[in-house]
Amino acid sequence: MPFLATGLSHHLAPLPVRERLHLDEAQIVESLRALVGHAGLTGAVCLSTCNRTEFYVTTRDDRQTQQATARFFHYISPGPSYSDLIYSHPGKVGLHHTFRVASGLDSVVLGEAQVLAQFKRAHRVAQQAGTVDAELDLVMRRAVETAKRVRTSTGISRQAVGYGQAAITVAREHLGDLDGLGTVIVGAGSIGRATARLLQRAGAAPLFVVRRGHKAQALAQALGAELVELEQLPELAASFRLIVSSTSSEDRVLGRQLISDVRLAQDQAQDLLILDLAVPRDVEPGTAEVEGVTLLDLDRLGEVIQQNLSQRERHRPAAEALVEAAVTELDLELGQRAAVPLITALVDRAELVRQGELARTLSRMRPLSEEERAHLDRLTQAIAAKLLHHPIAFLRQHADDPERRQLLEEAFGLEGAAAD
């Protein structure tokens, strides 16, 4: 089972590129079905978050896997070429990458928990799309199991480090004490809710939640905040100095003109800080040019997060060791699975030959008793079993070596058996 993890992430791709290649669930389903249906893949899962868009795929042979790689991002973004930003990790290296992603070891926030929930969601979406084969399902399930073990067996997730905490740090750096600081929350998803609760604990008040769906109303009630319309912000401008935006909108939510109107109604001696925690970004980039506005996005928060990770870094070796052990075990199991169709085909071929030769021999002999026929049948079975013993042992021993499997396929005339 050739496996490949391919995509781009925050390691190489800047935020504007990640925005362009970010996929919502409907786009993911469409992409997965097109790729599995037309690119020769046997399985595909897509994980698209604010920091990465990756595909985890299975194919029948390595050449197909490599050819499919180039089609992924051309399919979802046929414009500019991002070849220098895209990585492809085949085989065991790909498994290792996938397990590290699920475990939060490849995240901006080392050991973050949110990526595991996103990883499990990506698996479910692919299952619903009908693009998960048995081998890929096993990979995804083992990755989740390993990620849970990493979280419970090491201290890599115990220190409070995340975008919410980073937002608090940045807000204090720019605005000072948050006690009594008026704040607007735009977006009531997981990041928005977490950040809002941390701001409330820090004493931020009054709190305004912009009305955007039923989640906003629930968040406003939970915080004891005022539920407002986006268009009301200029009227309320004198009451706040911080805006935190983290919607899932594909379009800009906060425009330059709206923020200009807000600034006109504010004390010009005090700055307005806007934290854009969304991908795609919620705030028009030109908003940063408005006098007295400081606009910071996820990349800036990522810098702050990196400064706060020293405690978690101490637990990285133990977490990496758990991942390595789990990947090695799965790689061996997948290799043994890959040998099963060929072993079955080899045994079936031998049995077919045995029965044919036995029937031909019996037709040329004098009539035999049932007991004599049984003896002869057992004799030929024993001969076939002894002849097959070493080839089967060889296949099991070298199950993870596609070249040796192919050699045996050709030697016994079983070409294509491993793909059945």
Q: TL;DR?
A:
With 420 residues, the protein is α/β, with parallel strands linked by helices. The chain has helices at residues 15-20, 25-38, 62-76, 91-102, 114-129, 134-153, 163-175, 190-201, 214-223, 233-236, 256-264, 298-307, 310-313, 316-364, 370-397, 402-411; strands at residues 3-9, 41-48, 52-59, 87-90, 183-186, 207-210, 226-228, 242-245, 272-276, 293-296. Helix 4 (91-102) packs across helix 6 and helix 4 crosses helix 14 (316-364).
Jot down its keywords.
single chain, 420 residues, alpha/beta, 6-stranded parallel sheet, 4-stranded antiparallel sheet, 12% strand, elongated
Number of contiguous helices: 16
Q: Percent helix among the residues? A: 55-70%
Morphology call: elongated
What value does the average pLDDT take? 87
N-C termini distance: 12 Å
What portion of the residues fall into strands of 2 or more residues? 5-15%
For the largest beta-sheet, the strand count, sense and barrel status come to: 6 strands, parallel
Question: What's the arrangement of strands in the largest beta sheet?
Answer: 7-6-5-8-9-10
H/E series, N to C?
A: EHHEEHEHHHHEHEHEHEHEEHHHHH
Number of strands: 10
Note poorly predicted spans. Answer: none
What integer value in Å does the Rg equal? 29 Å
Structural category: alpha/beta
What oligomeric state best describes the polypeptide chains here? single chain
